[in-house]
């Protein structure tokens, strides 16, 4: 019987579904339907997820596995930063390796076990790549140019500047004061840009950010295919790059601390010549393990499975609490 692992990175919650445990293996369409069903379930152990991370074998050299990201609405995403840390931990435990590559839709990405954040709060560092800025890579349209780099978009909001960066999933980023960030704009703009609209036909992850101090940010994300989330790893990474680009030109090397509604991450942002190097480091927490017969899972008989919670969440929450008292 397959076991799905429930995980989170900064409280961005997922089930890891390892397709190699299934015979026959479910199709991506079946897994998309499963994501929607879990989200709609009235069982609180299952309905708080932001998606499913599908693990497959990889045929690429040095890759310990392949990750495919299925959003909560069943759509497919090219990347997930918080999810990749949890998949890295899963594959590390399966293979005994601490440093390896994971195949994702657009790139084979370096992942590595990092120092624990606190007792029972394991962490991983993951590469976020490739970095893209051009309209065709999102796509976006009718925004008056091929890139959006810290400039007004009066079509979207009269008083804000925006930056568009794909890593490679698409992100729209704006820095603002606390009052604007906690106001109602993101709840209006997020659904608008992820419904039928002339600007982002495939939708976009919308990141609102506040600068707390030098190399310190708070980021809140309205995610494509999900809605408001506790944290978006690629969003925090793209926002850290946008922050550094607004302050430094030429070569740079920063470690940005990013707070989010679910915790905190570190983002290493470096540029040498035309090459960007982005690395996201934070927790990879296992919330529970759910063993269920494959037909019960795929037919939505979720009460037939056996879900066992771990004790890691208490340790994670204690670590989050310790951040507030620092
Ligand atoms: N939560 C993720 C991003 C997941 C994909 C996103 N919803 C999209 O459709 O691009 C992260 O941690 O990066």
Automatic annotation (TrEMBL):
Ordered alphabetically, the record's keywords are: Amino-acid biosynthesis, Cytoplasm, Isomerase, Lysine biosynthesis
Cite the GO molecular-function annotations of the record.
diaminopimelate epimerase activity
Q: Where is the active site?
A: 80 (proton donor), 80, 232 (proton acceptor)
EC number(s)? 5.1.1.7
Which spans are transmembrane here? none
**What Pfam families does the record tag this protein with?**
DAP_epimerase
Q: Does the keyword Nucleus apply?
A: no
**This protein's superkingdom?**
Bacteria
Question: Where is this chain's protein located in or outside the cell?
Answer: Cytoplasm
Q: Where does substrate bind?
A: 12, 71, 81-82, 169, 205, 223-224, 233-234
The record ties this protein, via InterPro entries, to: DAP_epimerase_AS (IPR018510), DAP_epimerase_DapF (IPR001653)
* Pathway named in the protein's UniProt entry: Amino-acid biosynthesis; L-lysine biosynthesis via DAP pathway; DL-2,6-diaminopimelate from LL-2,6-diaminopimelate: step 1/1
List the catalysed reactions. (2S,6S)-2,6-diaminopimelate = meso-2,6-diaminopimelate
Site location (Could be important to modulate the pK values of the two catalytic cysteine residues): 171, 223
**Subunit annotation:** Homodimer.
Family named by the database record? Belongs to the diaminopimelate epimerase family.
Its biological purpose: Catalyzes the stereoinversion of LL-2,6-diaminopimelate (L,L-DAP) to meso-diaminopimelate (meso-DAP), a precursor of L-lysine and an essential component of the bacterial peptidoglycan.
The name of this protein is Diaminopimelate epimerase
- State the organism named in the record: Fructilactobacillus hinvesii
């Amino acid at each position: 019987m397959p076991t799905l692992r429930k995980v989170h990175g900064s409280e961005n919650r997922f089930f890891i579904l390892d397709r190699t445990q299934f015979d026959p293996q479910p199709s991506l369409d079946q897994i998309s339907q499963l994501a929607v069903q879990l989200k709609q379930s009235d069982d609180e152990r299952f309905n708080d997820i932001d998606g499913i991370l599908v693990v497959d074998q990889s045929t690429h050299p040095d890759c310990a596995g392949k990750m495919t990201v299925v959003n909560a609405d069943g759509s497919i995403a090219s990347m997930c930063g918080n999810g990749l840390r949890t998949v890295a931990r899963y594959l590390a435990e399966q293979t005994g390796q601490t440093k390896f590559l994971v195949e994702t839709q657009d790139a084979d990405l370096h992942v590595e076990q990092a120092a624990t954040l606190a007792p029972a709060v394991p962490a991983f560092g993951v590469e976020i790549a490739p970095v893209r800025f051009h309209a065709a890579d999102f796509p976006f349209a009718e925004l008056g140019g091929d890139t959006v780099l810290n400039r007004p978009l009066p079509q979207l909001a009269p008083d804000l500047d925006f930056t568009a960066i794909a890593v490679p999933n698409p992100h729209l980023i704006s820095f603002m004061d606390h009052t604007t960030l906690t106001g109602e704009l993101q709840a209006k703009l997020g659904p608008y840009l992820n419904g039928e609209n002339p600007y982002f036909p495939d939708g976009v992850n919308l990141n609102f950010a506040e600068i707390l101090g030098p190399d310190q940010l708070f980021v809140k994300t309205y995610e494509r295919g999900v809605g408001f989330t506790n944290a978006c790893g690629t969003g925090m990474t793209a926002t850290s790059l946008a922050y550094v680009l607004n302050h430094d030109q030429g070569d740079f090397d920063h470690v940005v601390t990013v707070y989010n509604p679910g915790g905190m991450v570190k983002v290493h942002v470096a540029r040498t010549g035309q090459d960007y190097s982005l690395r996201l480091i934070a927790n990879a927490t296992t919330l529970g393990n759910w063993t269920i017969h494959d037909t019960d899972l795929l037919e939505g008989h979720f009460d037939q499975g056996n879900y066992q919670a771990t004790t890691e969440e208490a340790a994670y929450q204690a670590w989050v609490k310790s951040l507030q008292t620092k």
